[in-house]
Amino acid sequence: MTTEVRVPTLGESVTEATVATWFKKPGDAVAIDEMLCELETDKVTVEVPSPAAGTMGDIVAAEGETVGVDALLATIAEGGEAAAPAAPAAEQKPQADAPAPSGGDSLDVMVPTLGESVTEATVSTWFKAVGDSVAQDEMLCELETDKVSVEVPAPAAGVLAEISAPEGTTVDATAKLAVISSSGAVAAAPAAAPAPTGSSSSKDVEDAPSAKKAMAEAGVSRDQVTGTGRDGRVMKDDVAKAVAAAASAPAPVAAPRGPVSADDASREERVKMTRLRQTIAKRLKDSQNTAAMLTTYNEVDMTEVMALRNEYKDLFLKKHGVKLGFMSFFTKACVHALKEVPEVNAEIDGTDVVYKNFVHMGIAAGTPSGLVVPVIRDADAMSFAAIEKAIAEKGARARDGKLSMAEMQGGTFTISNGGVYGSLMSSPILNPPQSGILGMHKIQDRPMAIKGQVVIRPMMYLALSYDHRIVDGKGAVTFLVRVKEALEDPRRLLMDL
């Protein structure tokens, strides 16, 4: 049986890629999810895993070729025997991807699939020590990428014989993490386990064809570029970064710390930022530097929503198996307002404005590791119950660090609820490339003038941050007013008013 290897989804607005490197050749044995080749787009580098185990067949798209989404890259003969190598053993490149067993009764624990465009991770925590007994599927360690945390389960029962990547080690997507012995034998700790660096192996590394072309066009020499690909391979994006760095003035550095007394220094604790926190910091700063961000404010009387929720919450829970919260009301209200002000649901792509005829709603969620934004797809076509179920399920996965990259991509608008932490007023930051984000806040009883009378009402401040490059002040204010109207009279949502 033959299985086709095709170009995976490359991301929003990316329609083609260049085949940079093949890690396998025809006749090689491949395991399921083993990396076959690397593709380059104008935005990211994508590794293509094997969809099945078997023998590498024909390579249809050679290195340097440009291919579209879903194009045929190669074929795999499932269950076939590996063909005899055509080249002498001395000329063959060692296969770091293949999970070679370390002994007859031992099994290597490899880095699991990290997700599209994620090529490395940091070992954050080992839950087991060398010599500990482990059960199959028991969690051995936790990896951190710049997107999510990944737990690594034991592939078999036995004894943890060796830890190849201690805590704090940065590993690539095909690295060995540990060895499990079914007999209970424990390997002696290696004297040193230095990870190979790009510089030490650069002589034997073939740079991506697109990178070579870009270096030639830009007049940049190989030693001026730092390769971030596998084994220090230079990728197209590395060349662009080197050219940009050479053309721009040195970036300003943070001011050095002032003098710290010995007594104060002894009471400080220095902790390295996690990869997720570094990525959050970079993305938020990039958002400020790129978008013409502005915030407009309003307030909403939550009386009617709270009354409706209290009246139906028990019946809602009994029928749908999920609690009726405020988020479904706000999601529905935003969907309603986005239909009237579509530019808030749009994004800028170069000199084009891309209008979305759908709503993929991002719901910002705080986790122990940092802020993540799972996306509720096609929220505009969902019921209150479906929205509440989706928010509950993705919120739980976010807290457990089990969200995949796909679940955090593609959002068109975001809602952030700082009210759960007691925030009374704030200005949320845009989640690029989106053009709008709604900030919810704490519900607080305040005296309000209603029909000439001062009454106490549960009020909430709302904030809409928007990209002023495509959203005018009139559109932003209109959007927020429509959200306010829908929440103060929820019947408008049912009648699409």
UniProtKB/TrEMBL annotation:
<dbReference type="GO" id="GO:0033512">
    <property type="term" value="P:L-lysine catabolic process to acetyl-CoA via saccharopine"/>
</dbReference>
<feature type="domain" description="Lipoyl-binding">
    <location>
        <begin position="106"/>
        <end position="181"/>
    </location>
</feature>
<dbReference type="InterPro" id="IPR036625">
    <property type="entry name" value="E3-bd_dom_sf"/>
</dbReference>
<dbReference type="InterPro" id="IPR050537">
    <property type="entry name" value="2-oxoacid_dehydrogenase"/>
</dbReference>
<keyword id="KW-0816">Tricarboxylic acid cycle</keyword>
<keyword id="KW-0012">Acyltransferase</keyword>
<dbReference type="InterPro" id="IPR011053">
    <property type="entry name" value="Single_hybrid_motif"/>
</dbReference>
<feature type="compositionally biased region" description="Low complexity">
    <location>
        <begin position="246"/>
        <end position="262"/>
    </location>
</feature>
<dbReference type="GO" id="GO:0004149">
    <property type="term" value="F:dihydrolipoyllysine-residue succinyltransferase activity"/>
</dbReference>
<dbReference type="GO" id="GO:0006099">
    <property type="term" value="P:tricarboxylic acid cycle"/>
</dbReference>
<dbReference type="InterPro" id="IPR023213">
    <property type="entry name" value="CAT-like_dom_sf"/>
</dbReference>
<comment type="similarity">
    <text>Belongs to the 2-oxoacid dehydrogenase family.</text>
</comment>
<protein>
    <recommendedName>
        <fullName>Dihydrolipoyllysine-residue succinyltransferase component of 2-oxoglutarate dehydrogenase complex</fullName>
        <ecNumber>2.3.1.61</ecNumber>
    </recommendedName>
</protein>
<feature type="domain" description="Peripheral subunit-binding (PSBD)">
    <location>
        <begin position="206"/>
        <end position="243"/>
    </location>
</feature>
<dbReference type="InterPro" id="IPR006255">
    <property type="entry name" value="SucB"/>
</dbReference>
<feature type="region of interest" description="Disordered">
    <location>
        <begin position="191"/>
        <end position="233"/>
    </location>
</feature>
<dbReference type="GO" id="GO:0005829">
    <property type="term" value="C:cytosol"/>
</dbReference>
<feature type="domain" description="Lipoyl-binding">
    <location>
        <begin position="2"/>
        <end position="77"/>
    </location>
</feature>
<comment type="pathway">
    <text>Amino-acid degradation; L-lysine degradation via saccharopine pathway; glutaryl-CoA from L-lysine: step 6/6.</text>
</comment>
<comment type="function">
    <text>E2 component of the 2-oxoglutarate dehydrogenase (OGDH) complex which catalyzes the second step in the conversion of 2-oxoglutarate to succinyl-CoA and CO(2).</text>
</comment>
<dbReference type="GO" id="GO:0045252">
    <property type="term" value="C:oxoglutarate dehydrogenase complex"/>
</dbReference>
<feature type="region of interest" description="Disordered">
    <location>
        <begin position="246"/>
        <end position="269"/>
    </location>
</feature>
<keyword id="KW-0808">Transferase</keyword>
<dbReference type="InterPro" id="IPR001078">
    <property type="entry name" value="2-oxoacid_DH_actylTfrase"/>
</dbReference>
<feature type="compositionally biased region" description="Low complexity">
    <location>
        <begin position="83"/>
        <end position="101"/>
    </location>
</feature>
<dbReference type="InterPro" id="IPR004167">
    <property type="entry name" value="PSBD"/>
</dbReference>
<keyword id="KW-0450">Lipoyl</keyword>
<dbReference type="Pfam" id="PF02817">
    <property type="entry name" value="E3_binding"/>
</dbReference>
<feature type="compositionally biased region" description="Low complexity">
    <location>
        <begin position="191"/>
        <end position="202"/>
    </location>
</feature>
<feature type="region of interest" description="Disordered">
    <location>
        <begin position="83"/>
        <end position="108"/>
    </location>
</feature>
<dbReference type="InterPro" id="IPR000089">
    <property type="entry name" value="Biotin_lipoyl"/>
</dbReference>
<dbReference type="Pfam" id="PF00364">
    <property type="entry name" value="Biotin_lipoyl"/>
</dbReference>
<dbReference type="Pfam" id="PF00198">
    <property type="entry name" value="2-oxoacid_dh"/>
</dbReference>
<comment type="subunit">
    <text>Forms a 24-polypeptide structural core with octahedral symmetry. Part of the 2-oxoglutarate dehydrogenase (OGDH) complex composed of E1 (2-oxoglutarate dehydrogenase), E2 (dihydrolipoamide succinyltransferase) and E3 (dihydrolipoamide dehydrogenase); the complex contains multiple copies of the three enzymatic components (E1, E2 and E3).</text>
</comment>
